[in-house]
Amino acid sequence: MKNKAQKQKDLETLTSQFQEAKAAMLVSFTKMTVGKDQELRRQLREAGVSYSVVKNTLARKAAAGTLLEPMTEQFKGVTAVALSTSDPVGLSKAIAKFSKANPEIFSFKAGLVEGKVVELRDVQAIANLPSREELLSKVLFLINCQAQRLVTVLQAVPRNPAIVVEQVRAQKEAQGV
After folding, report:
1. What CA–CA distance (Å, rounded) separates 35 from 7?
2. Whether residue 3 has pLDDT greater than 80
3. Count H helices, E strands: the chain?
4. Strands, sheet with 106-113, edge to edge from the N-terminal-most edge strand
5. Quick one: pLDDT at residue 177?
6. CA 132 to CA 90: how far, in whole Å?
7. Which helix (H) or strand (E) holds 139?
């Protein structure tokens, strides 16, 4: 059994994790096997997400004064928390994928993305978004595309008169002048 100092340390650790999180998902599970739990943890780890099963009273205390405070009423029953400090899309994709594959053992309680409480349908919509890296590459492609068009137009200014002069010369030679 933990003493008071250990419980206080656990509370401080969980509070700091809640404060650093930009996105969080509260989930519940029943009859989850060790294999399924390891599969979920592996998928979340690959997405850069921390995942832990929490005591509800500890989680309610830790959530006070953090972004997770609006979700305190969801800390009932078996509760696990998945936290992301960077990309909410990766977290959403991992949770939506596992939830869809294992609906009989895994259920979604509530989510928090950038300070807003979201439902399962919102999480699925977020999961369908491209990742941050994909979005950045698309933006860079669009910026580069415009630069290429500008270069093409700028090159056309000296090229076009030269083409016209060449066409006039070729036409005069064809006429025999």
Report:
1. 29
2. yes
3. 6, 5
4. 50-53, 80-84, 23-29, 106-113, 116-118
5. 65
6. 9
7. helix 132-175
